[in-house]
Design goal:
412 residues, binds flavin-adenine dinucleotide, 20 strands, FAD, alpha+beta, FAD/NAD(P)-binding domain, five-stranded parallel beta sheet, 36% helix, elongated, flavoprotein, seven-stranded antiparallel beta sheet
């Protein structure tokens, strides 16, 4: 029986382990943290958006430039299959109003518990508090645990160590040194689904850091889609769903031009003319804050945003209405990599073959966020991690079947 070592106990690694065990392999999962799936548990705090219910054709477009090389894996383990899989673990899903798919429990812990139990039934060994540190000759994986160093013999290895954000949950991107040293082509990490920095006034920062701007619409100046939703004012800028949806575009624009401007529509459901008419009805001796509250029910954080420009907000109703429809916010940099929901960069598409096997290291397969793709929030991240985990496992099974190990005796 072939013995496969899977490194990383996140969704990609566990999906690979499950498929490998089902394929008849003995499987050991190596996880550096005390428990598996920490980032998935964190995703569960937001309800665990597992996947999306839109048409498969539209779904696939979300992976942008990475679509061609991810598509076979996503077709082989589609959003419907992921939902069935979750239901099979006692976690049926529902479709939220935005089309996003969540387990009914709206958290990850019951799913992870049931999954861990199934893996144990399949005979998968999970070594927690074990960190992969490199190779010890062909087919020998070096790991370090509190008990000291150990070497695991492997017929093939699946790497699923995650990206490089939220390092405290386990994925710190330190694997790049090991793979670059072995000649694997890597793209530098960039934050994806991230917040941005801007120079708020001290007043806005002190009074409103952490406050959501609800029911707004964001449009990047200079071209780009308008996204409705919520943004949150942070001490140094803006984050939240609507910002994340534009983050790849904004990040690349800042990289090219040094900064990017975002136009915030504080009342996207009303036309400029309607706003002006309402404002004209209230204004008079009222203060700006009172006028905006009475006429438009604008919350204090929105009023503060209107005051952020170099000049005081205009007094006349038509000009004020124009500003409410497009408050400019200049973004100077993406927020730190560690705060990003996910990362772009990692193992480049041409560094792996169609089975997700590293061309530079035959017998070593890669899955999940380690691979150089990005997608918006909406369940696309977890779906691709599950799908590439399974695809890498099937890649291992095919490779073993074809005698790959015998043909590449020098594989690590
Ligand atoms: C706050 C937050 C909310 C999110 N919400 C959603 C959501 O709702 N929907 C969605 O689709 N996506 C969401 N994501 C993204 C999603 O959680 C990740 O894309 C996904 O977990 C990545 O899976 P992975 O298996 O590739 O890596 P990870 O989940 O990061 O797992 C990698 C594992 O490898 C381990 N590891 C790393 N280095 C070593 C080593 N040297 N030795 C041994 N083990 C190692 C790590 O400890 C970790 O457990 C969210 C992310 C965050 C941060």
């Amino acid at each position: 029986m072939a013995h496969i070592v899977v490194i990383g106990g996140g969704p990609a690694g566990l999906a690979a382990a499950e498929a490998l065990a089902a394929g008849g392999c003995a499987v050991t999962v190596v996880e550096r943290m005390p428990t598996i799936g920490r980032k998935m548990l964190m995703a569960g705090r937001g309800g665990l958006n597992l996947t999306h219910s839109e048409s498969l054709e539209r779904f696939l477009t979300r992976y942008g430039a990475a679509r061609p090389w991810l598509e076979p894996a996503l077709l082989a383990f589609s959003p419907d299959e992921l939902r069935n899989w979750a239901a099979g673990l006692g976690q049926p899903c529902f479709v939220g109003s935005s089309g996003r798919v969540f387990p009914q429990a709206m958290k990850a812990s019951p799913l992870l518990r049931a999954w861990g139990a199934r893996l144990a039934e399949q005979g998968v060994t999970i070594l927690t508090r074990h960190a992969w540190t490199g190779w010890d000759g062909p087919g020998r994986v070096r790991v370090v645990s509190p008990q000291g160093e150990r070497v695991l013999a492997a017929d093939a290895v699946v790497l699923a160590l995650g990206g490089a954000s939220w390092a405290r949950l386990g994925s710190d991107g330190a694997w790049t040194g090991l793979l670059a040293g072995a000649g694997v082509d890597l793209a530098p990490f960039r934050p994806a689904n991230c917040g941005f920095r801007t120079d708020w006034s001290d007043t806005l920062r002190a009074r409103f850091a952490g406050t959501p701007l609800r029911g707004i619409a964001l449009t990047p100046e200079g071209g780009g889609p308008t996204v409705r939703g919520e943004a949150v004012v942070t001490a140094h800028g803006l984050e939240g769903g609507a910002v994340y949806a534009l983050s790849a575009l904004l990040r690349d624009r800042i990289a090219a031009e040094g900064q990017a401007r975002l136009m915030v529509d504080l009342r996207p459901d009303m036309t400029e003319a309607a706003l002006a008419e309402r404002l004209a009805r209230v204004r008079g001796r009222e203060s700006l804050s009172n006028t905006l509250r009475k006429a438009l029910r604008l919350p204090p954080v929105a009023v503060a945003l209107l005051r952020e420009g170099p000049d005081a907000p205009p007094r006349d109703a038509p000009s004020l209405a124009r500003l409410i429809k497009a408050v400019p916010v200049t973004l100077t940099a993406p927020d730190s990599l560690d705060r990003a929901i996910s990362v772009a960069g990692g193992v480049r598409a041409d560094a792996v073959d169609a089975r997700f096997m590293l061309r530079a290291l035959p017998g070593v397969f890669v899955a999940g966020e380690m691979l150089d793709w990005e997608a918006p929030t909406g369940g696309y991240l977890l779906q691709a991690c599950f799908a590439t985990g399974r695809a890498a496992a099937h890649g291992v099974l095919d490779w073993l079947q074809e005698g790959g190990k015998e043909r590449y005796p020098s594989c690590p």
